[in-house]
Every structure is written in C-alpha cells, then in structure tokens.
Amino acid sequence: MKPTETPVATRPAPPRALPRLSVQGVSYAYGSPPEQFVLQPVSFEVARNQVFSLVGPNGSGKSTLLRLLAGTLEPLAGKILLDGIELKRLDTRTRAQRIAVVQQENPLLFSLGVLEFVLQGRYPHGSGLRFPEREDLKLALQALDQAGAARLARRWMHELSGGEKQRVVLARALAQQPVLLLLDEPTLHLDLAGQIDLLRRLRHLATSGQTAVVLATHDLNLAADFADCVLVLDRGRTAGIGPPSDVLTEALLQQVFGVPLRVEQRPEGTLRIFPEVNRV
Amino acid sequence: MHSPALFLGAFLLPSTGRHRTGAVATRAALLTLLVWGHGRARTHPGPAQSWQTVQDQMGRTLRVRIPARRVVALAPSAADTLFALGACRQVVAISAYADCPAAVAPCRTVGQPLSPSLEMIAALQPDLVVAARTANRRETVSALERMGVPVYVTDEHSVGDIARTVRTLGALLGRQKAAAELALRMQQHLEAIQTRLARRPPRRVLFVVWMDPLITAGPHTFITDALRFAGAIPAVAVGGDWPHLSLEQVVVAQPEYLIFPAATPGSAKPLLDELRRRAGWKDLQAVQQGRIVLVGESFNRPSPQLIGQIESLARALHPQAFADLPQVSAAEEAPCGH
Amino acid sequence: MRALTARRVWLVTALLAGLLVLIGVISLGLGAVPTPPRELGACLAGAAHIGAGSVSADCRMIVLELRLPRVLLAALVGAALSVAGAGFQALLRNPLADPYVLGISSGAALGAILSLLAGPPGTLLTGGAAFLGALATVAGVYLLGQRHGHLDTPTLLLAGVITASFLSAIIMFLMTTLPGRELRGLAFWLMGDLSSPLPLSLRWLYVAVLLTMAALYTTAADLNLLLAGEQEAEHLGVNVRRVKLVVYLCASLLTALAVSVSGAIGYVGLLVPHAIRLLFGSDYRLLLPASALGGATAIVFADTLARTVAAPTELPVGAMTAVVGAPLFIYLLRRHLQ
Fold first, then answer.
1. Predicted pLDDT at A4
2. Which residue of chain C has the CA closest to A94?
3. Are C33 and B114 a contacting pair at CB < 8 A?
4. Fewer Cβ atoms within 10 A, N terminus or C terminus of chain A?
C-alpha cells in the first residue's frame, strides 16, 4: 500500500469523537396541513472530522435535508443538534457563524470583486456596517488559499469561469469559519481535475478537525472515494447508511436508481461504480 | 432661515467663476439690461398710494396699494383689458401669448401663463398682478401670495362680467374715468348690435372649443353669453363649464352653424374640406352646406375686444341685419396710441 | 485591496458633498433674473451675518426666499428618490426597479386629484392629500405582497405593478371629469414640478427624510448580501424578513415624502444609483450615501436647467429629467441585456 494516499474504504475507522451534527428522527413535508412526506424520519450523526455524503436520485430529498441541516427549514418532527444545541434555538446570525452553505447556483445581480465577495463570509462575525478589519482580510485571503483560489483575489466575479467561481464561493463559505460545511452538488460545474481537487480539499478540511462536511452529490464514485459515511435516499426514505463499501452495493443501488449498476472492488480497496450498459 | 444660510456662507468662495455657456450669457446680458435697467426705473410719481383691502372675482381677499403703479398681467385677457384701459405705462410686464400694443412694444414677458418666472415677477416689484382663473394655475397664485405679491384673479362668466372687470381694474389702477368710458363704449356697441338683431330668431350653433375630444362651451361661460349677444344659442343643451360632447348628440341636434376659433384669420375652406372627410362631421347639414364660421383666437379671451368679435360673428350669422353697414364699425383706437 | 473601508466611504461622501454645495451655490446665482457672482457672494455673506451684514431687498426676495428654498427642496427630493430607488433595486432584486414601480406615485397622484376635486384650494392641502394617498398605497401593496406571513419579493412586485396600473386607470378616468384649469395644474404635478416651493419652515420634512435615510442605512451591509439571494443572505446571518420590511418601509416613506412635495419626478430613482455603481461600485455602504448626494446634485442641476433653459418660462423639472433620463435609460437597458 502506498504510504501517503490511503483509499478511504480501507482506512481504519476514524477515532470516536463527539458528534458535530446529530440528526434524530427528522422528517419533513411541504404544505400545511402537510401533504406528502418529502423526507421520512431519518437519523444519523456526523463526527467533527468526517465527510458525510448524501446520495440519491433527483427528488429523493437530498436538497430538502440539506436545507433542514442549514436551518432554513424547520423539521416537521425530530431534532437537529449542532454540538449538542438544537438548531432552531439558534438565531440566524449565530447559525451563520457556525454553518456555511455552498449552493448550486449563485446568481449575482451586480458586479463584485472576488475579495469583496469572500469578505461577505465574515459578515456573521461582525456587526453594524461591518467594515473589514485586518483580521477579516487575513481570514478571507486564507480562505481563498484553502479553496485553491488565491490567485483570483484581484479579479471580478463576473469574469470567472464556472469552476473558478465555485472555488470562490467555497472560499466565502470557509471565511465564515464554520464548524459544519454543507454543499449541494458542488461538483456540477467542475471538470474532472477540479472535482478531485475540491473533494481533496474538503477531505483535508474535515480530517483536520476544523469543519465537518456534509455534501449532496450525484457522483457515486466521488462519494465512494472521499466520504467516510454515505446516506442513500430513495424517495424520502433512508435506503442505507454507513461506510461506502457497506452501503453502495449493487442490489441497493439498483433498487434506488432503477438502472442496473455494477460495483467493482478494486485491489486498493476503492469502489468503482458504473452503469451496466447493454449494447444491443 | 439662518442656519441654512450659515451653512452656505461657510462654503463661500470670493469669485464663483465663469460657468455660463454662451447662450445663457447672452440671455443674462439682455435680461440684465432690461430688468435691472428698466425695472428699477423710477415710475412716474403719481397720486399718493394707499393700502386697501379688495376682494377678487374668486372670493379671495387681498391688500393692494391703490392706485397700482406697477402691474403685471399674467393672463392674455388681463393684458388686453389693461391696455384697453390705457394703462400702458403701468403695465410693467405681460405673459406670453398676450398682445403687446405697437405703441409700447417690445413688452417685457414673464413667461407662459401656466409657468411664469416667479423670480422675474418678484424682481419687478409689482403693486399688483392680474391673473385669470382660466389661464393661470392656483399654485402660481399661491406662490405669489406667499411672496407677498397681491394677485387679483378674474373669473368672467358673462359679457357683463367683463365690464365689471374693466371697472374694477380701472379702480385699482386709478383710471376710473377711462374705465367708465370703455364700459360705456362696450355697452353702446352691444346695444347697437342688439338693435340690429332685434326681431331675428337666434341661430342654433355649436361652438367648438376643441375637436378631439369634442369640447364645447357650457351655459355659464362668457363664450356662451357672447354667442347670445351675437344672435346665437347653443344647439346642444349641456351642463358644466367645458363639457365633452359626443358627435352623436351634435348629429341629432343638427346645428345651423359651426363656430371654430382660429389662430389665424383666413378662409374656412381648408377646415371645411377636412370636416367633409371626417366621419360624423360630414353628416352635419352645417358641414354639407358650408356653414362654418371662423372667429379670432381672441374670442377665447374675456376682455373688451370680445365685443368686436361679437359683431364679426353676428355679421356672419345674420348678414341681412348688417347689409346696410358694409364696413366693420370703426375699430377701437389702437390702445396706448398716445 | 479593493475592499471597502470606512475611510473610502468618508472620502467619496465628502467629495460628492462638496460637489453638491458647489452646484447649489452656482444655482443660487442662476435664473430668469441672473445674479452676478459678486452680488451673490455679498448676498450670502449678508444672510450669514458675515462682513457688512446687510441684505439687499432683491437678494432677500429672489435668492433667499425664492431660490434657496427651491434649491434645498430639489436637493432633498433628489436625495430621497435616489436612496429609495437604490433600496427598491435591492429589495426587488431588479436593477430596473425605481421608486414608483410599486404604485406609490400613482397613489399620491390619486390623493392629489381627490383633493383638487373635493377640497378647498391650497398647495399644502394637495401635498398632504398626496402623502396620504401614497401611504395608503404603501399599506395596500404591503398587504397584497404577503405570503406565508412575510413580504415575498415576486408577489410584492406583482402586487405593486398591478396596483400602479389600477390606480393609473382611476386617475385617467378622474382626469376626464376634472375641470380644465385643475387639469393643467395636475399635468405639472405628474411631470414633477418644483416651481411652487413650500416654505422653508417645513423643517419636519427635512428631518423626516434624513431620519428615514439613516434608518435605511443601518441595513446597508445586509443589502449587499440580499442581492445575492434571500437564501444566501440567510445563510450568511441576515434576518431577511426584518431587513426586507425595513427597506420596504423606509424606501416607500422616502418616495411618499418626495412625491407629495414635488410630484412624480422620473428617472432619478432609477438612474442615479446606476451611475453611482458605475463610478464607485455596488457596495450599499457607499452606494446609499453616494446616491443621496448624487441624486441631490442631479435634481438641483435639472431644476436649474428647468428655470433657465426657456426663461422666463419655468419648465417642470420632470421634463428635464425625462429628456436626459430616457436616452440614458435605453442605454442602460441595452447594457443590462448584454
């Protein structure tokens, strides 16, 4: 085995740490009175140095769950605890100091400089007009560095490519110095190298113990490679939860995604998932 | 008042530089000459002035120095009346669209009746401003009031009211004698016209204030009263001051004559041609038979010259009554001729 | 580093304030009766009790009592409308929003018309009625724009546009029933007109505008975030509901105050924030004060033009802003669409 890069699937289980995030029997339904359940009761924990991935087809409830974790939605039933405190007890500002969200789409109305944009991540920690202090500037540049976008600091947002913009949005989230980072399909606009780079950085972030990462993704292979734990959602139901090698089985995936898939265990221990294409 | 002034004073610069464009500079120079030169000129010392409280035709009360020596005519009708009274030197400025008698041309103008320059009026330091309800905005009158300038607003609803205005303005300007004479002349002229029209049935007419939309003069306007003196009555019964009519009503009423005020005198032929092409209008007998009368724009003004216009209209409507008087009766002598 | 600092805000604000004062002082010397710089200097010094201390009658009448209130009012209205425009652009997340898009000017116009139809004459009364009409519209649109108990941006925009349209229809209907003379005054009001300035003693108006602008400024940092989207703003700690309510109320109040005083001056609220953005960036912590000062300067300038371009006739200031604003708006639209 290579001494440096050890694939996730065969790593020893991470040391037992206090759960950063604890989700207990959380469910959600839209409409009042609630009509059909978008999310059936789900429970899981995310340790402070873990990367936790949500996978599932469109409409399975991934985005809803993320919004619940961000505190944007209130669960119909159940509790969400961040470091032992119930989310709904926290006001918007405190939540923003602890949880950062990276969305899929980031429309900008007026042109903005990259540094200004990242500095917005410092807003939850300031008050009033929030003019940036030296500390804020330092943290913002640091965040850009962490996101691999240090060279973009002097550019304008509307000039950036999709991938560059994604990095800057991540930098803004990191500038919040969150203990929990939520990402919704962060690899959508990235090329292959970009995807791997992003996931590596997220992994690094988590293992350093600073920030727990929860990401929703379509890409089963990335989830398999980089997540400590995977939750598979199927039309709001929990289809499976646990380490990738345990959960991402052919039987389960076929049931959830409805297409025949093949799961291969590589010698290094990594999983490779690909569709079974029948060329007739 | 002081705090804003202090604020400004603190930012004062000794010479604020040459910022004017050529056009404004020329205007500035001309106006400076006119206003600062003449405006400050001593007016002829006349009879002593005393303050009096007067009520105008809109029921407003004002304190005026009588006889007024410096008067601004804010409406064309006011200018007409004042010049007809011979108050030529007393009128220091008129509004746009007013007629300036050749004897005193050029007249200083303070801008359009709807939006005159308050600054200019203030700079002229008038004793009195004469406005007309139909020509000026109440906001302008209020603003002048707030500046401490007395404004007399006229509001004529009949030809008799015009005579009243003549007498009142004459009193305000110390020209009672001229006013009495003018009123008498107006009276006599009207009586002469009435005599000629004595046994003739009045013509049913439509006075077209505006074509699109069709607006006519209501029963309580001086125009309708003037029509009566000219031997005409409205063909369509309406209410209000300047009511809208639908063409249908006119077609049903079939007036004998259509009367249009025209900016320039001239033949009615172009207008007639157009009317003959328009739907609705061409169904009117008056149009088919060419019974269109153009009256001067000044038919719209409640002032002494209206009498002359009444006679012209009467001639057009009742030619036989004036058959033995081929010429228009002696024109009023040019105002301010002396 | 391009990040905005408090120092930059102060610098830009001071620069624009200086420009405003300069334009203001120059404009005090311009008008149908131009005041030469030396004369103006003496006048202002006298008013501020500097130097000789005496103030000539002309200075008092024209500069201090006519022009000064007008210039101050122009600055106030320009500032209020520009800040309101910037606020609405953030609230509705639409760069083409202006202060009137939610129907406030239509409500004020309706209030003004009703007072013209029903009440006794008086500019103050019309202004008061206009203000009430505006407030009623603000309340109505607020209620219509609710969804799930709070202001929902798309619903608000829809509610505002429909209300504006509905009120305009009523206004048009009422305008056909208004007697002609009132109609003319209304036309000036609808264009935006500062020629009948309210007396300076309306200090509460100035205080109200300044306080409201200050209240709006407290949300400046939050508005930067709101522009990216409500969810994003919330994720960054903004109390979105509270901020939207504050912005809605403050921007609406500013618009209502401005419109009841000067009528619906167009294009300022839309274009000044954009011009400021082009020059100084979109950060609301700078944009709000800079728009206030920029808008004040723009309207003082436009009103000075309105007073001098066709002197002695005074054009409505809204005509000037439209003539400059409409082509500017088209240019901006095309840029936005690219």
1. 47
2. C237
3. no
4. C
